[in-house]
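ligand=fe (ii) ion
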Amino acid sequence: MRREVAVRVAHISDTHITKYGMHLHEFLDSCIRILNTLEPEPDIVIHTGDLTDNGVLLDYELAVEKMEEVEPDILFLPGNHDERNYGDSLFREMISQTDVLTSFKRLAVLVLDSAIPDVDSGRLGRWRRELLKTSLQAFSENVLKIVAFHHHLIPVPFAGREKDILEDAGDVLKTVLETGVDVVLMGHRHVRNVITVGKTLMVNAGTVSSVRTRGRLGNSFNLLDVTEGGEIVVSEVKIPSGELHQLGVYPLRRGAV
Ligand SMILES: [Fe+2]
Ligand SMILES: [Fe+2]
């Protein structure tokens, strides 16, 4: 059955851009080509961090060059790799401010910085949890609320020994559920995954162009299609083939979009 798409969000992550490491340039190019030719075109692309591999100037220069090739609007937030080597200053200078709310159509997207400079673990902390609550509570019921950050909020399968989950995951989860967040977007583990907690969809993206994949999961990004019929269809887009693999169809909170 063909579903009419009201809003399309492309969720990319963990590009790990560098000239000097385990970054797959041709896979990044494939991802950009797929993003620019998707039909319908994404209303927004959200990059959930580890844009660069080392957070150094040469990585950021290449990242800026490559991300300028992406034609749809794109939102960024930093991952742990972006904040290595004082990279947090370059991220803010060259890529984006962090902890920013964007709203358009019937969509509100809050991107948060969960990274801590030179540490792999992550944390949102009290003021970002408060920001999440106050900024999203202001929107009416018919707005789809998306929160994005790099570190995972709940454990992700296929990722081996659990590590680097948000240090304050319990409190973040409570805030997310109480605020009526519809979708949480995350990266970091290089594993695509979708799970619901209450009425909230927790979506992890795989890696676009790092060699550090897991098993046969390969490289990918996610597409989230909000349908006129009140569902969210989450698909994985394989890189480099562009082949779509549906991860699940989930009912929307009544009234949203
Ligand atoms: Fe990563
Ligand atoms: Fe990461």
